[in-house]
Each structure stands twice: as C-alpha cells, then as structure tokens.
Amino acid sequence: MIALTGVTGKLGGQLARDLSQAGISAKLLARRPEAVEVLPHTTIHEAYYDKSEKTVEALSGVDILFIVSAHQSETRVAEHKALIDAAKMAGVSRIIYTSFFNAKLDSTFTLARDHAQTENYIKDQGFTYTFIRDNFYMDFFIDLAREYGEIKGPAGQGRVSTVFREDVAGVASAVLKNPKAYENQVLDMTGPESLSLAEIATLISKAWNKPITYVQETVPQAYDSRKVWSAPQWEVDSWVSTYTAIANGELATVTNDVEKVLGRKATSLADYLKEGAR
Prior knowledge:
single chain, alpha/beta, Rossmann fold, seven-stranded parallel sheet, NAD(P)-bd_dom_sf, NmrA-type_oxidoreductase, NmrA-like domain-containing protein, NmrA-like
C-alpha cells in the first residue's frame, strides 16, 4: 500500500491522479481531508506531519510513504522527523522523499539544509529510500517574469540547471509505480542545460515579444528590496540565498536522471516556450 502526503498541492495532487488512473491503490493523507480530490482506488485520511495517534493510524498497513516536503517554516525539520517517526511506528518500510538538489548541511540555499537533515534522518532510521532532489523549478522563474516583468536577485552570472515541475511529477510517478528499481538511490532532477538568469530572461522576452529583464542586485540590495513583504528573517534569508546559491555555482550541474527514468530528455526552456506557454 502506498501513502502520499501533500495531496492538496500541485505535485502530490498530480501523483494521486496518476496512481488512480493506473489503478494503483493509495492512501491520501491531508490536514484537511475535505480539500482532497476524491479519486477511484484511493482513500482519504486525516494526518499531519507529526507522530500523533491519528497519523500513525493513517499509516497503518502502508509499505511505501511518499513524503512531499512540508510547507516552509522554522519547524519543518522537526515536522519531517515526527512524520518519519510515525512511519516507523506504523511499520512503513520505504520512504520516497522530495528533497533538494545538492542538499548539504552547509548549503548556501538555507532550505536545502532542511532537506539534508531530513535525508540523514530517513537513513538513520533504517528505511529503504529514494530521494528525488529537485533543482529550482523553471516554473518559478517564469512566474516571476509573468508577474513582475523581471527576475531580480544577487545571482551574478551564476548558472542554474532548472527543471520543470511536470518532469519531476513524471519521475515521481514512475518511481512510485516501480519503487524497487530506484531503492536507496538519489535522483537529481535538472533540466537539460544550465542557464544564467539573464539568459532565462532573454529567452522568455523573445518568446513573449515583451521586455523581460534580469536585474542583478547586491546582497544588501536584495535584503532591502524584500522588506516590502514584512517576512520573518529566516524566510528572507531563504529568498536571498536562492540567488546566492546560484552565484556560488552550487546549482549549475546538469544530470540525465530525468532522461534515465522517463526515457526522454528533460524539457528545455526553449522547447517549453515554443509550445506557446505564457
């Protein structure tokens, strides 16, 4: 039996639909069961990123737990560990976890450190695992271009091998349908090329026939420009480190893991834009 978290979000929701269409039974776990799409071959269960009796009960009879990482917060690692504890208490044997590319305890991107801690905990608890490490979604930068007409941050001339969310969903679905083929593996999700943010802006600008620019900030400028959102310090740090990690070259490597799993190349920005996506 498979259980999925994050089923009210984009990735988890897509995985739930994929499994349902394939006729694979799954438990859909959510804080708000009423918000979960009702699908054939699935059951909906109230559960949390904790080790409460309710969560352990929801995981009863589950062999494979797919964890979509919890919402970004200062307590996210503790939430992950509690859910992992609940999985162990319930007898789950395998965890598939959505992590982050090049996750290390000392990563420049602050949220990648959360993922490194979570990966280590899953291993320490003795689970069979698969870590799907996403680089930044290209969708994120396209959304910035669409909303603001610019991509702004202290990324310098650094490059990033962004990946489309749809490709990650395809890989995750394939792993769930054949988990033994990917046990105790790390799958690094990147696009087919590494681009600077200036190159991303230029490609989008040409495709949309409208000005889209990359505004290169200094780190102090980046902190100052984000004051408008009145976010807590840890969150602002994560936003700024999105770009400084790119500047430091930590997110530039291109892998062929998407192609190895899906049997086709990862989607490029140019190909995506050729389809007229706006």
